[in-house]
Queue: 2 jobs
Job 1
Amino acid sequence: MAMDDYYELLDVAPDSDRENIRTAFRDKRDALQAGEDGGAKNRAKVAELNRAWNVLSDPHQRERYDERLADYRESGEDDGDGEYDDDDDDDDARPVPVTRAQKREELRRKRGAPLPAIVLPDGLTMAPVRPRLQALAFDLLILLMLALAIYFGGLKVIDGKFPGERSKATDLVSQQKKAIKVVNTDKKQVSAAKDAGAAAVLKHDTAAKTKADAAEKTAQAAQARDQKKKDKITKDLDAVNKKLAPWLELTYLMEAVVLLLYLVPSTAISGQTLGKRIWKVRVAKRLDGSQPGLSTALLRFGPAVLIGLFLAGPFGLQLFGFAIPVLGMVGWISKPNRQGMHDKLAKTVVVEA
């Protein structure tokens, strides 16, 4: 099997750094694609450049490639035009995986796992798992800090506008729970008294029936009294919640707006949040690899943030509500295409920057 000299192909020195190799790759690729026919005749050459970039851009694969290239040159099997013959019988069955993506595919193939169905545009490489997870963790930490700051800031504003009302609401919730238990106990006592009266009738026991009737009346009176207390507590709680609810909902809305402001504009313009910029990965449109743009970025993050807002507000899950859509977004880890629910919805992928 013949193997190209990737350094010669890209016209760079073997000790060139990654940025110089990237520049050379892009210059040569752009020149080939700038033909009158849109570069259609040069697709094979562009594919060769992509293979060279995929190997030389990965430090581990580049080190392995350099060792193999040096071994073949020393063995005298270099034919002088940048190619050499490979007598490895195993390579006749399947090409040796040289890029990180190819190694993942080879491992999935051996395990019988589904292979990626997405074909990335030329020049793009799927982002490795580790830096993508690091970027995600960093962004989630920033989002959590922003959400907490807004949440507790909102509570401070509410306490200033309605002093003591939140504490009152908490106390009323506790009282309501206790009142519900008491009323349920009263209902059981009424039911037990009725059962005792029915049993006394079957036995024709007049004394027992009289006693059971008295117990039933006492239990019913207690139930009515305790139900009235419960209704009063519920009414007071509803009144407090009616005051606080709009302000709490406004707080959750502010959280959603700030989270979207962190995620959407930067992703729309560059494909990178702060975390992705640090760890050198970016979001791209799946079909052409271009920047997401505003509509795609909104579609990618908007539903998740709105679901979190809905769960945090009406369902009362507070900050935990935002954790639920995050779980759906990180499902890409186990997927061959490395796409979470938000990626599938927006038709995006995360690639190396």
Note: The longest helix spans residues 206-270.
Job 2
Amino acid sequence: MAEALRLVRKFDAAPEDEKSRELILALLEQTDAPFSRRQFQPGHITCTAVVLDPAARRVLLMHHHRLRRWLLPGGHVEEDDVTLGAAARREAVEETSVRIAGRGRGRLVGMDVHGIPANRKKGEPFHLHHDLIFAWAAESDEVEESEEAPEVIWCGMREFAQYDVPGSIVRAAGRAMEG
């Protein structure tokens, strides 16, 4: 939890991301299990990856199977994730088979708090994902589709509008490309 608090406190959020930053800080400071996927009130931390192609001109997007929209790969933090950036990296690899260069920690480039619809099959009520977005670089353009990501594409910033990419992702991708 100390890593998350340090990262979120020092993150220079855009005005549009400040509310998410405040909500994430409150979650980390005021709840006992902020990383537990079973904590539904007020939600839990998830980690997402902005994966840049080798030329750092395009971002890896996946069509999310359940939410039915184009998003970044990402998901829940697992106990064996060494860092939060490593959680984002692991999720990107699991969902798209992308090969990510190096190990490192990833760089926090964005955050977003958003609602997740109830999932009756899993016994999950509507809840919030307090998402930390980390930048990574791909070794190659090779990716694969999966059950969680039935469509996977490389997308340039100018193409984001046609995929209805949320503003928090656009801002995070812009930060990632700035270096």
Note: The longest strand covers residues 127-137.
